[in-house]
């Protein structure tokens, strides 16, 4: 088991390991939110608060800060290989879901959450 921390690990190895989190949770969600905002309202209260008070670039900054925080928390999470894999898959899945949700808003004017009747 390889442990990523600022003493023994490589930040570039960590970035490769979380590449799908970066692709979907950070870039996909943020970029699709930028394009979806003119068509809809942000229903998630935390991003809505950030967008209203600080703007879209602060939302990106918080997502990048999350990746850095995860880097420092990785050694604790990696105590169990299964726990690290599960953590990555959950965050990746959330990123895929919100990116698809935002893309549906852009293309059809209706979100996946609305189509499922959750909002």
Summarize the structure.
The protein is an all-alpha fold. It has helices spanning 11-17, 19-36, 45-53, 56-77, 81-108, 112-115.
Task: Describe the protein in words.
- There is one protein chain.
- The protein has about 120 residues and is mostly helical.
- The protein has one domain (about 10-115).
- About 15% of the residues are buried.
- Helix 2 (about 20-35) runs antiparallel to helix 4 and helix 2 (about 20-35) runs parallel beside helix 5 (about 80-110).
- The chain has helices at about 10-15, 20-35, 45-55, 55-75, 80-110, 110-115.
- The longest helix is centred in the C-terminal third of the chain and has 28 residues, at about 80-110.
Q: Beta-strand level of the residues, as a percent range? A: under 5%
Mean pLDDT, to the nearest integer, reads 89
Low confidence ranges: 3-8
Strand and helix order: HHHHHH
Q: How far apart, in Å, are the first and last alpha carbons? A: 42 Å
Number of H/I helices: 6
What fraction, in percent, of the residue positions are helical? over 70%
Number of domains: 1
Structural class: mainly alpha
